[in-house]
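Running this now, will post back.
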Amino acid sequence: MYYSRDLGELSLNHTLLARMSNADWERVRAQMRADLEDYYARV
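Update: finished.
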């Protein structure tokens, strides 16, 4: 996984992307929600 600060985008390796299941994506979404909640709780 790579984050481009200039573009403000995340990119994934195509091999990793092809191997991710729906459960993997749900774990990513859950982590992103938790990170957002933590971020805004501190603001």
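The first strand starts at residue 2 and ends at 4. More later if anyone needs it.
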